[in-house]
Known about the structure:
Blueprint: E1 12-15, E2 23-24, E3 40-43, H1 51-60, H2 67-70, E4 98-100, H3 102-108, E5 113-117, H4 127-140, E6 145-149, H5 153-165, E7 168-174, H6 180-188, E8 192-196, H7 200-210, E9 216-218, H8 224-240, E10 248-252, H9 257-271, E11 280-286, H10 291-298, H11 327-336, E12 341-344, H12 346-358, H13 365-379, E13 389-393, H14 401-409, H15 437-444
Parallel strand pairs: 5-13, 6-7, 6-9, 7-8, 10-11, 10-13, 11-12
Antiparallel strand pairs: 1-2, 1-3, 4-5
Helix pairs in contact: 4-5, 4-8, 5-6, 8-9, 9-11, 12-13
Amino acid sequence: MSETREPSTGALQRCIEPRCGKTYGLNERLYVCRSCGGLLSIEQPREGLAKEDLRTLWRQRRASLDERDRSGVWRFRELLPFSSDVSIVTLTEGNTPLYDAPRAAAYSGLAWLKLKHQGCNPTGSFKDTGMTTAVTQARILGARVVVCASTGNTSASLAAYAARANLDCAILVPEGQVSSAKLAQSLDYGAKVLEIDGNFDAAMRVVRELAEDESIYLVNSINPFRIEGQKTVAAELLEQLEWQVPEHVVVPGGNLGNSSAFGKGFSELLKLGLIDRLPRLHVIQAEGAAPFARFFKEQHDLSGEFENVEHPRTLASAIKIGAPVSWQKAWAAVRESDGLVLTVSEAEIADAKAMVGRDGVGCEPASATTVAGIKKLVAAGVISPEEKVVAVLTGHLLKDPDYVSKYHSGQLRDVGEDGGLIEGHFKNRPIRVKADAVSILRTLE
């Protein structure tokens, strides 16, 4: 284990509640404010960070073979609250591609659309960019066990990083509600997989109770060190765009850690002078699991009560969350950037996912909420056809291959009460053909 010590960065943890604002040292093991129960955010001084120096430094590191520079998170370590000599836990995460998407753009009504594919991380989802920092912090604190509640992606990521760090790992998942592909990852990486009755929100409640034990470290997005790693994706994205800010960035909304991280990342880049404005940050939720969208529609500030969805329903299992822990941070990010929160149907998600596939890019269902949401925002006049838009894809196609097979074979059923078949408009059924060249040529013609 690394020696427990405060880093020399001058960073601290601060309660985000305006009426509280209590601060804590970085190495105090806590997830919410001890005084009021509010979420924590990490702050650090920015003196001496010159805009052009940072851009040059980050670009030069791309040619380095140093372990930290090969990571798309630690390459931007000036943004992170760790001392320079910290022993990091990394799988060379980040460095994910930014794809042109002409077919998805035309489908959405845009001339310019790019897909930032976080599903190209080591374990196939965006979770890796935050897990590298969270597990590094767990090792600094001398944790014995790392835990999480998960719909699949967090558990796969934590299991891999815990294995790299030689830490015991326990994950809680809702029984029968996690893709077998995601579950297979956690099992293969050696984690203790604990299946519980109930949904993700029930699992989250239990792991928060478990984390009261000092030897156990919780790494869900309620942990502010997760957000620190994930926020570096904003810097990587802008670097890929040669620091030209798109008008809109669109992300899926589940537990809302990702939208919180993008908001924090863009805000910090603005304060550093690396960008001159914020992109509008839009969050898209599935209709059956949309507590944040409902709150955003009904409230003008944080004075109203946030109501969870007791029984969230969506085939996009990665965002099947009714009690998102990071909603306040996501609210701040969306409001600061003049963004919106909206919902899309299961049929809209399914068709958008198939259209992303037509660009040769595979993603899991939750990722496709972005393209489905963009199509609605263009139709509503919120996004103009000539504006530049980036859709964030959070998970890889192979995270949920059963969904893909059912869609293209016409067997994908809605989660509504009637459970009717989703009439996919871009189905691509397998074709039975005789095993001879003439039959095959006739079919191809």
